[in-house]
Amino acid sequence: MSVQHNQSGQLVLRKDVKFNGVKVFSATMVADRDQLGEKVTAWIAAHNECKVTDIVITQSSDEAFHCIAITVFYWEENTRR
User: Fold this and answer.
1) pLDDT above 60: residue 62
2) How far is CA 39 from CA 8, 21, 62, in A?
3) What count of other Cβ atoms lies within 10 Å of the Cβ of residue 77?
4) Is residue 26 a contact partner of residue 39, using CB atoms and an 8 Å limit?
5) Which domain holds residue 39?
6) In 1-81, which ranges are continuous DSSP H helix?
7) ∠49-68-62 over CA atoms, to 5°?
8) CA distance 81 to 74
9) Does residue 9 lie within any of the structural domains?
10) What is the distance between the alpha carbons of residues 7 and 25, in angstroms, rounded to a whole number?
11) Other CB atoms closer than 10 Å to residue 56's CB: what's the count?
12) Cα Rg for the chain, rounded, in angstroms?
């Protein structure tokens, strides 16, 4: 199940999206935010055993900082748990 918020800020549960792993990428500094997409792309390319099932992008701010988070939900067949 994937958890998301819609544009009105309400919680959305998606039972159609299955995952058994989550990877979160986040950045607050401008240069790091500019490279965030490339980091996600590189991680996905390096982990071809993981099938991406959903991606959620979140932006938050306070008085001094802006944070971008990219959350990648994925399914990995051969998990070692």
Assistant:
1) yes
2) 29, 17, 24
3) 8
4) no
5) 16-76
6) 30-46
7) 155
8) 15
9) no
10) 21
11) 15
12) 14
Cα-flanking dihedrals φ and ψ of residue 18, to 5°? -105, 145
Give residues with Cβ within 8 angstroms of 13, minimum separation 6. 1, 2, 3
Kindly report the pTM of this predicted structure: 0.76
Q: Which residues contact 36 (CB under 8 A, 6 or more apart)?
A: 25, 26, 27, 68, 70
| pLDDT per position as a tens digit, 29-44 | 999 999 999 999 999 9
Q: Is residue 2 part of a domain?
A: no
User: Residue 40: inside a domain, yes or no?
Assistant: yes
Number of domains observed in the structure of the chain: 1
Tokens of 13: 């549960």
Question: How many residues are listed for the chain in this entry?
Answer: 81
5, part of any domain: no
